[in-house]
Amino acid sequence: MDFISVSKNDGIATITLSRGKVNALNEIMVEQLNDCFTELETDRKTDSVILTGRGKFFSFGFDIPEFMGYSKEDFIRYLTKFTGLYTRIFLFPKPVIAALNGHTIAGGCMLATACDYRVMVSDRSKISLNEINFGSSVFAGYAEMLGFCVGWKNAETILYNGAMYSGDRALQLGLIDMVSSRDDLMNEADKKARDLGGKDNSAFSSIKGLLRKPVAERMVRREKKSIQEFVNIWYSEKTWEELKKIGIKI
Description:
This protein has one domain (4-186): 2-enoyl-CoA Hydratase, Chain A, domain 1 (Alpha-Beta Complex). Helices cover 54% and strands 16% of the residues. The chain contains 10 helices and 9 strands. Strands 1-2-3-5-7-9 form a 6-stranded mixed β-sheet, with helices on both faces.
């Protein structure tokens, strides 16, 4: 695959985001991730999954320069695929561990939140839902996932502030579950993947479904309308000007 790589070892599949310097998400990358999770779901030799990135970024989020060339209809098509991907990861019947190797921003943070457990490096890397700072919203499905993971008060703090959080602060807010040195990151992710992957798969899948399916039902019910609202804000004159500034920096 062009933008991700997959390695398998002793029951653990490691998916590595590998697109440019910042692992920015585009439509092809989202499709490749979805195909990968489809394959791993039925792979009897895979007990758990680690999702990580290459380089100093887990993911910058959306490839803004590329999407600025999309029509509204094309962008809605992409967003439907993207929100479908994080819903799929959120409900994936096997454990999914996010090994956050670097900056985890916006759409990258959304993918990480969908995972069962998040380990983040303890260096200068930041994690953020910074959409409000450039005049963008998020999605109903993501708001539901974030509330489930960190509690609604912390979700409000994270989304309203749009701040860039260090690992320690993100841990306090519940946005991640563990801080690790860069050298130990993959070892810690591997330990958690083996721990959860070593549980009875049917029992794990059932319990995960009991916890998450009610949330996912709300996500799906509200998502289509929220995508349209997101697009209307994204293409507004004020937000478009801010997106242009970001696009120049990438």
